[in-house]
Specification:
Blueprint lengths: L1 E5 L6 H11 L8 E5 L30 H6 L4 E4 L2 H5 L5 H13 L3 E6 L3 H4 L3 H10 L11 E5 L13 H12 L6 E4 L7 H5 L6 E4 L6 H13 L1
Parallel strand pairs: 1-2, 1-7, 3-4, 4-5, 5-6, 6-7
Helix pairs in contact: 6-7
Bound molecules: 2-phosphoglycolic acid.
2-phosphoglycolic acid binds next to strand 7.
Length: about 230
């Protein structure tokens, strides 16, 4: 099981250090835990991954960080393709694939996000699968450090996760072409994590809002341990 926290644009470096201290008090068992803090809170710690970086060692990319900056903290894990970067920051599939290649070539563990907007979901599962496949163009699905996160856009940050049957059906479809771990993300909370983790083809969760409270996140890890 994999349980990952995406802080997005929340928490300072000091808060992140305290969070990790608190988190490390518990035994993770065989649960793999990852924490993605904002760039200003990157810390050298095996749990930490970057929410984003530019596919470059260094250079003239104002506002971005590259591999040189990640290397300073020995970061070897990155989130790519998150819906907020696709839809708010306007990242194209072509650019996302370029990023994927760069970090793959640098041996990063890549948490690669895919997920459909509501208008596609309304068209049914076939349209959803077709849309998701479009978000995988140019991505090496055999990469041994790839972890996929299925996060329906309409379930992210809304407090309403996808229905268990929808998660089950979608993960089953994704499994047909992805053999690597598949996480679910989108309004995962303490109240639904157990049911979600018990679904076939769900190998873990990517948690946004609910991960911000370390006590809640610790409880989530404990629940994952029991499954
Ligand atoms: P959420 O975010 O848990 O707040 O819905 C999940 C994500 O965007 O990774």
């Amino acid at each position: 099981m994999i349980v990952a926290a995406n802080f997005k644009t929340n928490k300072t470096r000091k808060e992140t250090v305290e969070y990790l201290k608190e988190l490390e008090k518990i035994d993770f068992g065989n649960v793999k835990v990852a924490v993605f803090p904002p760039q200003s809170a990157l810390i050298e710690d095996e749990l930490i991954g970057a929410q984003n970086a530019y596919p470059t060692m260094s250079g003239a990319y104002t506002g971005e960080i590259g591999l040189e900056q990640l290397n300073e903290f020995n970061i070897k894990r990155i989130l790519i393709g998150h819906s907020e970067r696709r839809h708010i920051l306007g990242e194209s599939q072509e650019f996302i694939a370029k990023k994927f290649d760069f970090f793959k070539n640098n041996n990063f563990e890549i948490f690669y996000c895919i997920g459909e907007p509501l208008e596609i979901r309304k068209k049914g599962i076939e349209a959803v699968v077709e849309y998701l496949k479009g978000q995988l163009i140019g991505i090496d699905l055999e990469y041994e450090k790839l972890i996929v996160a299925y996060e329906p856009v309409w379930a992210i940050g809304t407090g309403v996760s996808a229905k268990l049957e929808q998660i089950q059906e979608t993960h089953k479809e994704i499994r047909k072409f992805i053999k690597r771990p598949i996480l679910y993300g989108g309004s995962v909370k303490l109240s639904n994590i157990e049911d979600i983790l018990k679904i076939e083809n769900v190998d873990g969760v990517l948690v946004g809002s609910a991960s911000l409270d370390v006590e809640v996140f610790k409880e989530m890890i404990k629940k994952a341990k029991e499954i």
